[in-house]
Amino acid sequence: MSRKDLASFSLSKRPLLIILSGPSGVGKDAVLTRMKESGYPFEYITTVTTRPRRAGERNHIDYHFVTAEKFQQMIKQNELLEWANVYDNWYGVPKEPIKQAMERGEDTIIKVDIQGAATIKKILPQAVFIFMMPPSMAELGQRLKKRHTESDFDLNLRLRTAQEEMKQLSLFDYMVFSHQDEIDRAVSDIAAIVTAEKCRLNPREIEL
Predict the structure, then answer these.
(1) Model pLDDT for residues 66-86, shown as the tens digit of each residue
(2) How does DSSP classify residue 51?
(3) Which of 2, 72, 110, 206, by CA, is between 20 and 30 Å from 186?
(4) What angle do CA 153, 145, 152 make, to 5 degrees?
(5) What is the CA radius of gyration of the chain?
(6) What pLDDT does 174 receive?
(7) Residues in contact with 195: Cβ distance below 8 Å, sequence separation at least 6, in sequence order
(8) 3-state DSSP call for residue 204?
(9) CA nearest neighbour of 124 among 12, 32, 16, 14
(10) pTM of the predicted model as reported, rounded to 2 decimal places
C-alpha cells in the first residue's frame, strides 16, 4: 500500500493512538524523523522534557524543552498524560495535542520510554503499543557510544536498563526490529501495523 493509499485509508477509519517505545539508543527518533520526511499521515506528539538540549536538537520540534519549575507546573495543572523521571531528567506527554488530534480523526503517534508506555497502558489500554527492538545488545551499545552524549557510567547504566526493559515485552502489541542503517525497513513495518489495525473487524476505541 502506498503512502497516498494509506492516507486515504486512514481517514476512513477511527483514529489510532500509537505508542512507540523501546530502549534508549534503539533509533526511535530516527524512525519518526524518516516517517515525517516521507509524508506518512500521522500527528506526531512532541514530548516535554527538562533535559539539556543536545547538539542539533530544535525546541518544539524534537522536544519541548522546559525548566523543572515549568514541568512541575504542568503536572499540577493536569496538562500531562503521563510523566516520569528518566536518567535524572523529567519527560512528559502533553495531553491537549493528543485530544485535539483524535477529535480531528488523525492517527497519532507518541514516543515514550518503557516506563511511560506502561503508564499509558493503564490509562489507555486500547492504544496500539509498538516496541522497537535492537538486533542485539552489542549493537545497541555501539549506537549509544556513537552518540557521544553519555559517560561510560551512564552508557553502562542505559545498557543495564535496556536489558530490564526487554522483560516488559508483554505490555506491547507488536515488535519492530531496528537494524543499523535500515530505517526504512522499520518505517515500513510500522506502516504495515497501522494497515493491519485499520482492517480490524473490531476497531479500537480511544477515550481521552
Answers:
(1) 999 999 999 999 999 999 898
(2) S
(3) 206
(4) 15
(5) 17
(6) 98
(7) 1, 6, 9
(8) coil
(9) 16
(10) 0.84
